[in-house]
């Protein structure tokens, strides 16, 4: 049990730092580590991936709030861009959770690993494929629904989608990261609600679970991540945009390789 607490606490520190630095909710870090931890704890294989995703997105509520508040204090959140996107996120995140629990866990894991790899390559090559797509200026509420839906399925705070989107609307990288961090909050709240509702009658879930949310992990990760997220936001304001891109790409490659291997 002590080892479990240490793992969740360390995971919270790391995810909080990266959430603040990159405007992500930390899910791209938490989901792979939680999957490995839950396997070692002997949880049922059929529900491990969904439990990791649901737990991850619930942790992002606290990580996202801390990260968003830190960026707000630095005036790097564009609320004019945030509000319409957040309106769409509310519906998309809830529906994404209900959809994710119907998908086979192995397919979900491979999907996450592949997605992270593609994003890492895009960032490293500086092609901005997602950003170029968003220059088509689709309706922001529709974009928000899509960001919320996909983020909830993947168990992430949406920064992988929303940072390129906000850059495509003309924001600089620092403001795009800050506004993306704010979007992680409604994604996490309504995604968590969906995973709780979807897991109410699931009898394979371990003790101390609330739907597809494992409460010991939620507590351990959240307590440490809320403190580290503000330091991540501070770091993002000191690093150059080129350095931020390289760090993001490198981290995504590590996570992708781990997800394929676990």
Keywords:
mainly alpha, 11 helices, 262 residues, 0% strand, single chain
Outline the structure in words:
This protein is an all-alpha fold and 262 residues long. It has one domain. It has eleven helices and no strands. The model has no long low-confidence stretch (mean pLDDT 82).
Distance between the termini: 22 Å
Mean pLDDT reading: 82
Structural class: mainly alpha
The helicity comes to over 70%
Rg of Cα set: 17 Å
Please tell me the total number of domains. 1
Q: Main β-sheet, in a few words?
A: none
Outline: globular
The number of distinct β-strands equals: 0
The unreliable regions are none
**Number of helical runs?**
11
Summarize the structure.
This protein is mainly alpha-helical and 262 residues long. It is 80% helix and 0% strand.
List the helices and strands and how they pair.
Layout: H1 2-22, H2 27-40, H3 45-73, H4 79-100, H5 105-125, H6 129-134, H7 140-154, H8 159-168, H9 173-198, H10 215-238, H11 241-261
